[in-house]
Task: structure prediction
Amino acid sequence: MNSFNPCTHNSVAESFVESGENQRDSFMIIAGRANRAAVKIAQRTLNRNTRENRPQSAANEVHTADYAVPFPHHVLPEQARQIDDRFVRFRAIGRSDAPTVLVLGGISAGRMIGEPDATAWWPEIIGVGKAIDTTKYRVIGVDYFPLAPKNAIDLSPNDFARVYLAALEKLGVLRLHGIIGASFGGMIAQEMAVIAPEKIERLCVLCAADKPSAMGRAWRRVQQRIIDLGQRFGAADEGAAIARELAVTTYRTSAEFNDRFRDDQSVEDYLGYQGEKFLQNMSPVRYRTLSAAIDRHAIDPCKITLPVTVIAFEEDQLVPVEDARRLAQGVAGRSRFHLFSSPYGHDAFLKESALIGPVIKSCLEERN
Result:
């Protein structure tokens, strides 16, 4: 007896392209009952269905604001409720009356988005006139928790999805125009789409699949053991830095390293710099927690009913093309699959703005 599976009958549009070479505001704390006025302000500011009667010139102004929402520990399973974070921290950039887009990056990303400074990420993608245009959208970034854990905590992308959905609702964001998720953020985006499809209009997933590859898990296992070894012998920072150095080699490609580094010293200096830089904003325990969370990602693509755009890179060692294509082909909603080539491998989502920008822009502008 033949059974019809809608996921296996999904048509996927594919494309392949060769690669070539604001101000900071203080936090507004949204404190539930104790601060209903603040909640109303956030709802007026961030709810895409709200429109204010004001001149067009004022409506097009790009605003930046930071928000701290009480951490919704109740949505987590019992073993994950030991998180000490008091707040979920968001940054919103864009027109205050525009559709809202949530942007989620790799484990080193956070709420600092679209600004050309050392702490922000994706400045080539997010901003006025860019792929995620802050004159057309209200763009939200968020910090990954836990920010300062005392011990490693067993978390999964599903836990992050539940926390962010609850915190966004408290913030007054009742519906998202879309989620753009890359790497770890792409996993969280998938989980959010499974949990609350009625709150999200579309997904754009970059360098992520429905589950981690076996080789990706193997590499992270070695990194996690290095972190554990460093902690055991009183060299936690050194262990985490070495683990990060190893991770960086999996993000890039042999072709890029061979072209970029002509001697042993230059590659050693580069890796040492990457390890030290990473620890400026990431403790060893937090690194261990987020790394392990990646390995707990697993969703059934058929449960994603939204329109999905998947972007993959041929040279990505962590997310093989066949894994990303499996996600695109498996979703129940409409999907598009874009395959690019880049010497930057997994890090191409950070480096190849000229390739991915038009795809992201098209995804956000497409009518559902």
Q: What stands out?
A: The two ends are 34 Å apart (CA to CA).
